[in-house]
Amino acid sequence: MKKTVLLLSVLLLAACAPKERTLKDVFEGKFILGAAVNAAQINGTDARGDSVLVKHFGAIEPENCMKSAEIMPSFGQYDWTMADKYVDFGQKNGLDVYGHCLIWHSQCTPDFCYDADGNLVSADELKERMKQHITTVVTRYKGRIKGWDVVNEAILEDGSYRQSPFWQILGEDFIPWAFKCAQEADPSCELYYNDYSMHEPKKLDTVIRMVKNIQAQGIRIDAVGFQGHIGMDYPDLDLYERHIRRVKEETGIDVCITELDMSILPSVTQSADVSGINFFEAMMNPERREELLAIVDPYRGNYPEEVYAAWNDRMGRFLDMFLRNSDVIRRINLWGVSDYDSWKNGWPIPGRQDAPLWVDRNYELKPFLKAYINE
Fold first, then answer.
1. Contact at 8 Å (CB) between 36 and 259?
2. Burial, 304: exposed, middle or buried (Cβ in 10 Å; 0-12, 13-18, 19+)?
3. CB 247, CB 255: distance < 8 Å
């Protein structure tokens, strides 16, 4: 009898104990908190990653499986395997599911913009192909995807348009056309433009003009994605905040902080584009690779206490800024679940070890988050 009473007392105390707060609890009513997932998480082979993801995050975005080269290896020939698994994974775990991305010059289906002879197709042909692809993908997941990155990375830091095949054929018109096709395919889905280096003033000027052009044509765009690939020395926090506010003030639409990570290592570039940096010799020459790694990864995974503390302080200040602007920011999406599987590892030199995310390699929340959890 005494054992029964004791067991009941323990169970009662457990039931009455305060529920452990999670990140999605902390930021509820402020913004949606999401993370990008990779094949291991989608397939269930990263059980620890899946556990921390479902516990702390309320939304997911795919790292790769919905980019056109992945979902459509050749034009009109689709492989839905991973994309279907991705959407099923999100719904099974009660997560908001987002799509990334419909039109992007990189990781693009090789023959999307070219004919059988390797020449650029005509403007009419490209518009038809864009409509076909966007309609096919968006319609397949209609009602299951909450929002799409419709166009990704079309504008350069100096404010000029990237001279991608889409731009070469259609000029600036390829962007509103993509949004029009997406809107028609799923009128209830949120539609975003997504880009990096949004702290660059000339770039933001062009993005704002582009958004206004879309709006002037009666086409819907719901938010601008600020890719948060940031570093310890860039961007200036106050400037970043002003740019977030500018989007709302000048266009009336919201901002999403997308692809958020902050390298703890010395900056190689302040851009997501490293095409101008020659690391070929580092790939081919082990001695040269070690010389370069000593410069761009001096810690090799053993971060000095003061460096780790500085990272947590800076990321905490960014999070405080995001919270101050939660009336404008509708979603924050980390570009990965944990440091263990961040794309920053091995980028742009094999062997480089980074720690850019909110969850460390042991799948524990980093120190700067503890204050929010324990409030």
1. yes
2. exposed
3. yes
Q: What is the pLDDT of residue 1?
A: 53
Residues 274-300 have pLDDT tens digits of 554 455 555 667 777 788 888 889 999
Active site residue 291: no
DSSP reduced 3-state for 148: strand
What is the maximum span of the chain, computed from C-alpha positions, in angstroms?
Answer: 85
Strands 96-104 and 147-152: parallel
153 given a catalytic annotation: yes
Backbone angles phi, psi at 325, to 5 degrees: -110, 30
Give the DSSP per-residue string, 162-180. Answer: P--HHHHHHGGGHHHHHHH
Cα 290 from Cα 227, distance rounded (Å): 30
Q: Which pLDDT tens digit goes with each residue over 327-367?
A: 999 999 999 999 999 999 988 888 899 999 999 999 999 99
Helices of type H across 80-235: 81-92, 123-140, 165-170, 174-185, 201-216
Q: Which of 231, 205, 260 is nearest to 35 (CA)?
A: 260
CB 34 within 8 A of CB 60: yes
List 61, 63, 190, 259, catalytic entry:
259
Instruction: Give the active site residue among 153, 190, 200, 241.
Output: 153
Q: How many other C-beta atoms can be found within 10 angstroms of the C-beta atom of residue 371? A: 10
In the chain the domains, ranked by start, together with CATH numbers, are: 20-278+305-341+358-373 (3.20.20.80)
Instruction: Write out the two tokens for 353.
Output: 């070890």
Peptide bond into 256 cis (omega under 30): no
Q: Which two tokens stand for residue 204?
A: 């933001």
Residue ranges, the chain, pLDDT below 50: 5-17, 276-277
220 and 190 in contact (C-beta within 8 Å)? no
Burial (CB count <10 Å: 0-12, 13-18, 19+), residue 208: middle
- What pLDDT, on a 0 to 100 scale, did the predictor assign at position 4? 53
In single-letter form, the type of residue at position 257 comes to I
Residue pair 287/340 in contact (Cβ under 8 Å)? The answer is no
Number of other residues whose CB lies within 10 A of the CB of residue 91: 12
What is the distance of C-alpha 34 from the center of its chain? 9
Name the percent of the chain in helix, strand, coil, to the closest 5.
45, 15, 40
